[in-house]
Amino acid sequence: TTPDAKLYKQFDELLQVSMVWEGEGFFRQLLNENLNIDNVIDSDFAMLNQRLAEHYGVPGVRGLALQKVKLPRDSVRGGVLTQAGVLKVTANGTNTSPVLRGVWVLENIMGEPTPPPPPTISGIEPDIRGATTIREQLEKHRAEESCNACHRTIDPPGFALESFDPIGGFRENYLRFVVSNPEKGWGRVQDGARVDATGRMATGEPFDDIREFKRLLLMRRSVFAYCLTEK
pTM of the full predicted structure? Predict the structure, then answer.
């Protein structure tokens, strides 16, 4: 997908290519150093070049080539889930969906394939006016018994990743493009609703952000090991 140029002017071809390099370079590093597979879930390093480091807000990285960069202890990065490439391909060009990202995490990290939705159930579309949040819409969706069975498992991993926008940048608020001249398409970008990245696993454990979510995943490392080995 091509990110909305009005909302994400900072996206460029070098960033897109660097996203791919990061995923490949990270996996190559795991192989070359024979590292513990826990690093796939959370690592204290990332493979970055200057363009990715700027995107992630990590200082001190120069040049085009990827390099192993030590991350601060409180960094939201580390592992695969918070790599911009994964976050981009699990979103469309304008919005993020906890459902799409949740399904990706379940199938690729937690080893829990999800069944397709019933053909009579319509998909969740973000409210472009910003009147309701995607979380509010999903809460109504889960009120349907036929939907709740799957969404109580799907939604939590997706909520944990809501702090990341469609190009993998960290955010505290959603963005809105407010049109001032409909004929010419002029307008300005402004903050929308505040992001809520909290959740509760289907098994009951709560989390406040992506850091705590990754810690919960590491408590189930045998499940991930099986998933990775199977794939």
Answer: 0.85
